[in-house]
From TrEMBL:
Name of the molecule in the record: Cadherin-7
Gene3D superfamilies: Cadherins (2.60.40.60)
GO CC terms in record: adherens junction; catenin complex
Upper taxonomic lineage: Eukaryota, Metazoa, Chordata, Craniata, Vertebrata
Annotated ranges, domain Cadherin: 1-107, 108-187
Domain of life: Eukaryota
GO molecular function: beta-catenin binding; cadherin binding; calcium ion binding
Organism field: Melopsittacus undulatus
GO BP of this protein: adherens junction organization; calcium-dependent cell-cell adhesion via plasma membrane cell adhesion molecules; cell migration; cell morphogenesis; cell-cell adhesion mediated by cadherin; cell-cell junction assembly; homophilic cell adhesion via plasma membrane adhesion molecules
Length: 187
């Protein structure tokens, strides 16, 4: 399964064979062991009697690449006269392999607040933004300013370091606050 699969998504369907019909064929499934306890859950499709394995927590390929689940299938209704012939259950092992998905860079902060004097010379450093690639490859990140948020080009950014500098003289009386959007892209 891809690591980007949303919580509550179906990962797999399994089915225990049962020669019975009607209520005697009704099953229940449960995860009894394995390193996927709490990450996956299993429920029953009442129409097909299949075990439906779903995700309970987000997957992260970089943290864990596979899970093993020990699953038990059992008859829900056992006739007390036949208890001595049991058990009326079986076990299987399900291995779930997590696939890597190329994830976008992540900034260390959603919002950066920087202060600069209106008397600052062109080229003055006002701050630095930082983002990293969460993938195992840890690709280099390049930065740019969304020019739709800086139409008059008051600021520049170093594409490699994320250092933001003034590109024009600033005037507090004309514009006391500038909100710009910085983009981070994997190289």
């Amino acid at each position: 399964v891809p690591e980007s699969l949303p919580v509550a998504s179906v990962v797999a369907r399994i089915k225990a064979a049962d020669a019975d019909v009607g209520p005697n064929a009704e099953m229940e499934y449960k995860v009894v062991d394995g390193d996927g306890l709490g990450v996956f859950k299993i429920s029953v499709d009442k129409d097909t009697q299949e075990g439906i394995i779903t995700i309970q927590k987000e997957l992260d390929f970089e943290a864990k690449t596979s899970y093993t689940l020990r699953i038990e299938a059992a008859n829900m209704h056992v006739d007390p006269r036949f208890l001595s012939l049991g058990p009326f259950s079986d076990m299987t092992t399900v291995k779930i392999i997590v696939e890597d998905v190329d994830e976008p860079p992540v900034f260390t902060s959603r919002l950066y607040s920087m202060v600069v004097s209106e008397a600052a010379k062109v080229g003055t450093i006002i701050g630095t933004v930082a983002a990293h690639d969460p993938d195992a490859s840890n690709s280099p990140v390049r930065y740019s300013i969304d020019r739709n948020t800086d139409l008059e080009r008051y600021f520049n950014i170093d594409a490699n370091s994320g250092v933001i500098t003034t590109a024009k003289s600033l005037d507090r009386e004309t514009n006391a606050v500038h909100n710009i959007t910085v983009l981070a892209m994997e190289s």
